[in-house]
Specification:
The chain has 13 helices and 14 strands. By secondary structure, the protein is of the alpha/beta class. It catalyses: (sulfur carrier)-H + L-cysteine = (sulfur carrier)-SH + L-alanine.
């Protein structure tokens, strides 16, 4: 049975060129980048080169790039590193953020910070006007994701960045899902911190990046050595850093081609489902969502049974729900969009496209999906 992977928003397969680069580094460059001898300097050159490559993909400066262990750590470093320096104040975020942001904000709320969680409309988009209305003199941080990981909804990051030009609040953007799919220029967006992750762009797991605007104070999460200009202690993962730089370079160079391909795959999936005569709807505005993410509502179809049946047919997809001890907790994103009583919370599935997916695969997956819906609805 052919297995079709349609869960690229969760993680993506490693690009062959990335794997080759990483294997080369693992095999030949084992020095500690902090060592001053030749072996250490060889490792340092790899890191410095990767830093320059990644900085260039977002129009940042070389020293603005901090390597972390994940996108989650990058988000946490920006949020805690900003807030705990201030020790008090007001923070604005949205109800649809990734848990790397939401749980960090909830932790700060317990420490005494004042939090505002902005709502979104039914397409999953926050209003820049709501951000503006929520701003206060004591607002120290605004954290808004670029593209939602569950629905793909693209947020008005540039508009929010523009209105923050006249405010002292620090602007943090979780771009983990958007990086490599949308062009990013940190100068034009007016962001202070921006988080990205290696494994979402056909790079390795266990490596992330935080862009930190030059001159901004940042309290480290980790203490130890003086790596990453004293902002992130710990010996650098040289092979993963090299792999992420390769993945970033490929993703940005092929961005337009890949984006057009994903849009075509998304259209094929939707059109094939429609041809099969089943009842479904899209949980976002297709034209205002990330090209590779498609969140669909199938009335009267139970999420858990749906995912099990898809897996039995060799199709990997996911939902925004958390399955714990046999019970399903509704997606916080869909809850924010449609309310806790909406049927969409219990009958929505995310399909996401990426490396190695073909039009033929997508057609077959859509037909199989329709067959399952007819059985379960």
């Amino acid at each position: 049975m052919e297995r079709i992977y349609l869960d690229h928003a969760a993680t993506s397969p490693v690009h062959p060129d990335v794997a080759k680069v990483m294997l080369d580094v693992l095999s030949s460059t084992y020095g500690n980048p902090s060592s001053i001898h030749t072996f250490g300097r060889d490792a340092r050159r790899i890191i410095d080169g990767a830093r320059t490559v990644i900085a260039g993909t977002i129009h940042a400066e070389h020293n603005d790039i901090i390597f972390t262990g994940s996108g989650t750590e990058a988000d946490n470093l920006a949020i805690f590193g900003t807030a705990r320096l201030k020790k008090a104040g007001h923070i604005i975020t949205t109800a649809i953020e990734h848990h790397a942001v939401l749980h960090a904000c909830e932790a700060l709320e317990k420490e005494g910070f004042d939090l505002t969680y902005l709502p979104v409309d039914e397409s999953g988009v926050v209003s820049a006007q709501d951000v503006e209305k929520a701003l206060r003199e004591d607002t120290i941080l605004v954290s808004i994701m670029y593209g939602n990981n569950e629905t793909g909804a693209i947020q008005p990051v540039k508009e929010i960045g523009d209105l923050l030009r006249e405010h002292s609040a620090v602007f943090h953007v979780d771009a983990v899902q958007a990086y490599g799919v949308l062009p990013i220029n940190v100068q034009e967006l007016n962001v202070d911190f921006l988080a990205i992750s290696g494994h979402k762009i056909n790079g390795p797991k266990g490596i992330g990046v935080l862009y930190a605007k030059a001159g901004l104070p940042l309290l480290p999460l980790l203490y130890g050595g003086e790596q990453e200009r004293k902002r992130r202690a710990g010996t650098e993962n040289v092979a993963a850093i090299a792999g992420m730089a390769t993945a970033a370079s490929i993703a940005v160079q092929l961005m337009e081609k890949r984006t057009n391909q994903y849009k075509e795959l998304k259209s094929i999936f939707i059109e094939t489902l429609a041809q099969q005569g089943i009842d479904f709807s899209v949980n976002s505005k297709v034209e205002q969502s990330l090209a590779h993410v498609l969140n669909l509502f199938f009335p009267r179809v139970d999420i858990e049974a749906f995912l099990v049946n898809l897996d039995m047919e060799g199709i990997a997809a996911s939902s925004g729900s958390a399955c714990t001890a046999g019970s399903i907790e509704p997606s916080h994103v869909l809850t924010a969009m449609f309310g806790i009583d909406s049927d969409k919370l219990r009958s929505s599935i995310r399909f996401s496209f990426g490396l190695n997916n073909t039009k033929e695969q997508i057609e077959r997956a859509a037909v199989k999906t329709a067959e399952i819906v007819k059985r379960l609805a």
